Automatic annotation (TrEMBL):
It is an enzyme of class 6 (ligase). Keywords: ATP-binding, Ligase, Magnesium, Metal-binding, Nucleotide-binding. It comes from Neotamlana laminarinivorans. The lineage of its organism: Bacteria, Pseudomonadati, Bacteroidota, Flavobacteriia, Flavobacteriales. This is 5-formyltetrahydrofolate cyclo-ligase. GO terms for biological process: folic acid-containing compound biosynthetic process; tetrahydrofolate interconversion.
Amino acid sequence: MKKAELRNIYKTKRQQLSEIDVDNLSIAIANQLLKLHVWQASFYHVFLAIEEQKEVNTDYILNILSGKDKNIVISKSDFKTYEMTHYLLTDNTKIKKNKYNIPEPIDGIEIKNENIEVVFIPLLAFDKQGNRVGYGKGFYDRFLSKCRPETIKIGLSFFEAETEICDIFNSDITLDFCVTPEQVYKF
């Protein structure tokens, strides 16, 4: 299937989830993540969920990372350049939703792309080859292209893999893993 078609299908599927569904599925994803051998790194990039889009609630992942005393990195999006700036999440970090309802840090200690070792990636759909469909602005492809090649890229999805996304671009960055409530996919 093509990205635009998948985008529509999975936005609709997510909107049909109740708040309780989102919460339970998010907990299941966090539990599946514990099976991965990615917890030796120091800097973990985590997206903060857009509640209105019924994204995976990453609070449970934040709790895991805090419990393991890891450095948590969150981003601020620039919708003019489609680039993200990354900041260390601390007890003093002030978070505010932007006009697209994305929770973002107001300011803080900036972290360079090359310091980030593991990235948890929001997505709408993914396929069995590790390709993914997001909202279509390319924020994560730009960001991931500037990370070190060994940076571990982990997609988070409420739904299982599609067979194939047929309109992949050279600039699309594939996942190393995708974690769903039911299983961990390795690519």
